[in-house]
Design a protein that fits this description.
The chain is α/β, with parallel strands linked by helices and 441 residues long. Helix content is 39%, strand content 14%. Bound molecules: nicotinamide-adenine-dinucleotide. Nicotinamide-adenine-dinucleotide binds next to helix 5.
Length: 441
């Protein structure tokens, strides 16, 4: 392969750490990434339209649990990390990594407007030798069909003058074992030079880089990963519904199946799925396939089953109240945990919000507690504040519903005080006394 002088220059800058890196979007993905590159010795500029996040980063205060304030403060103090709320000076950066949100519209169609907005701000400043990488989860074809034409509009050619790649972020907030650095990074470029440039950059900060043949393959890899989770959670939720009909304990069934040392992987049922990824990402794939006249049946089915789980929780709640000769209307229900998964504060798309809303719609008096979230906002913007986790508040509730299995909860104490507990996560599995009060999903 003949050489590429633009690549050679970028390679030199990356290797001697003089390459300047820009990270667009300082959220759950962008901030840990910025820290990782800064720790590898690069000067990193974070760009985020949210002024509060910019101020907080510049004062060294982390707004993401996986990044400690002491780490961030030291990097900001050393001049390795700084943030800004506009795109000024983008042309001076050598690599720009985009990690902005990719939500769904109400119709469940992809909303790539954040990617487009950041691209529109970057494109007029793009210069030869720059490397642009998209990290946001999106449908196969986005990098090639949406980004490439915008970046080439000024006459620069991808693969010759500038480099373009997709590298899916795999961050698992709250995971103590796998973080940005030790989670392998998949990289797919538009051309071989693009893949080489992106792989070289990530290789400086991330332990293992896995190059693939195209941006589309890299986009699809991320969607396979998240569709795999969504479908398997959908399957195990349906198994839970089957076990309920059969009078079986789904948790015992899963534990038993998991004794098989091969060919089985544990997934757990629960009140539904949440967060920025699992409920949304598979719909990016389903949407793309619809444009090709193909129906992504597993995705639709899993979405239907998972999306129905909050109603299952409400049905089980009603049944338990009924046993106590009570109606949902007028009952006091105390929900424990509103984050979509344990040990995080992330309430985005959390099934707890649906459970609370559905119970309130039925006339229940619902209070909640979460060690990491002290307020929630409903779809009308109405804020509800958390209630203290006291023995009194547990005792006076007609039913305590465990929606998120945070590790810091003292489950024996909760069960001791509560009159009745609906445990949607088997969080009380090790509670010995008062088991008669507990009903599992
Ligand atoms: N959170 C996760 O666990 C996770 C895991 C893997 C992949 N992803 C994907 O990574 C992407 C980012 O997710 P996230 O969780 O970090 O989102 P986030 O909401 O935490 O952060 C995104 C940030 O982008 C900023 N932003 C929005 N528009 C902007 C613009 N035009 N210019 C500059 N900044 C802008 C927002 O203010 C926000 O701070 C998404 O595509 C998501 O699907 C997320």
């Amino acid at each position: 392969m003949p050489g590429n002088p633009r690549f050679a220059t970028l390679e030199g800058k990356i290797k001697n750490r003089s390459a300047r890196i820009g990270i667009v979007g300082l959220g759950y993905v962008g901030l840990p990434l910025a820290v990782e590159f800064a720790q590898a010795g690069f000067r990193v500029t974070g760009i985020d339209v949210d002024e509060r996040k910019v101020r907080s980063v510049n004062s060294g205060v982390s707004h993401i649990e996986d990044v400690s304030t002491s780490t961030l403060k030291a990097l900001v103090g050393d001049g390795l990390v700084r943030a800004q709320s506009d795109y000024k000076g983008c042309g001076k950066l050598d690599a720009i990594l985009i990690a902005v949100p990719t939500p769904l519209r109400k119709t469940k169609d992809p909303d790539i407007s954040y990617i487009v907005a950041s691209l529109d701000a970057i494109a007029p400043q793009v210069r030869p030798g720059q490397l642009i990488i998209l990290e946001s989860t999106t449908y196969p074809g986005t990098t090639e069909e949406v980004m490439r034409p915008v970046l080439e509009a000024g006459g620069l050619k991808v693969g010759r003058d500038i480099f373009l790649a997709f590298s899916p972020e795999r961050v698992d907030p709250g995971n103590k074992l796998y973080q940005t650095k030790n989670t392998p990074k998949v990289v797919g470029g538009t051309t071989t030079w693009c893949t080489k440039a992106a792989a070289l950059l990530y290789g400086q900060a991330i332990e293992h880089v896995h190059p693939v043949s195209s941006t589309q393959a890299a986009e699809m890899i991320k969607l396979l990963e998240n569709t795999f989770r969504a479908v398997n959670i959908g399957l195990v939720n349906e198994i839970a519904l089957m076990c309920e009909k059969l009078g079986l304990d789904v948790w015992e069934v899963i534990d038993g199946a998991a004794t098989k040392p091969f060919g089985f992987m544990r997934f757990y049922p629960g009140p539904g799925i949440g967060g920025h990824c699992i409920p949304l990402d598979p719909h990016y794939l389903a949407w793309k396939l619809r444009t090709l006249n193909y129906s992504a049946r597993f995705i639709e089915l899993a979405s239907e089953i998972n999306g129905h789980m909050p109603e299952v929780v409400v049905r089980r709640t009603a049944a338990l109240l009924n046993e106590a000769k009570k109606s949902v209307h007028g009952s006091k229900i105390f929900v424990l945990g509103v984050a979509y998964k344990k040990d995080t504060s992330d309430v985005r798309e959390s099934p707890a919000l649906d459970v609370i809303r559905l119970l309130q719609d039925e006339g229940a008096h619902v209070s909640f507690h979460d060690p990491y979230a002290n307020a929630i906002r409903d779809e009308h913007g109405q804020v509800q504040k958390a209630t203290a986790l006291t023995a009194h508040n547990l005792k006076t509730a007609d039913l305590v519903v465990i929606v998120t299995d945070h590790s810091v909860y003292d489950y024996p104490a909760i069960v001791k005080s509560a009159r009745r507990v609906l445990d949607t996560r088997n969080a009380t599995r090790n509670v010995k006394s008062g088991r008669g009060k507990i009903v599992k999903l």
